[in-house]
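A reminder from the course coordinator: this example appears on the midterm review sheet, so study it carefully.

Given structure:
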């Protein structure tokens, strides 16, 4: 993703998808990339979320890895875990979430 315009388009699409994830649901980095029109760009989604400014209103915490786990560690892990638990999503001590029960499938609500 070399061009600035391409990057801006990617970010706009990704952030639009993430804003649509409803409370109490999660999506994977790969699912977000695919829904944004960029299949195979899961790592780019993670990178974009890692660069969000403090105070962002994007519900970044609803995006997890393909194993149904929180990928972050330390205080960031705890913050993401707390946000998800506050939305009623049960999480194991290792950060595992049931994708079967909590994965967002647009159009199936």
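Designed residues:
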């Amino acid at each position: 993703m070399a061009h600035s315009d391409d990057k801006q388009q990617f970010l706009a699409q990704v952030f639009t998808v993430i804003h649509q994830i409803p409370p109490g649901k999660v999506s994977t980095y790969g699912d977000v990339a695919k829904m944004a029109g960029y299949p195979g760009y899961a790592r780019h989604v993670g990178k974009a979320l890692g660069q969000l400014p403090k105070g962002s209103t994007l519900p970044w915490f609803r995006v997890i890895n393909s194993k149904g786990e929180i990928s972050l560690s330390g205080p960031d892990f705890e913050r993401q875990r707390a946000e998800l638990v506050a939305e009623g999503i049960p999480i194991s001590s290792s950060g595992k979430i049931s994708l079967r029960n909590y994965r967002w499938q647009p159009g199936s609500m």
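The mean pLDDT is 93. The beta strands are 27-28, 63-64.
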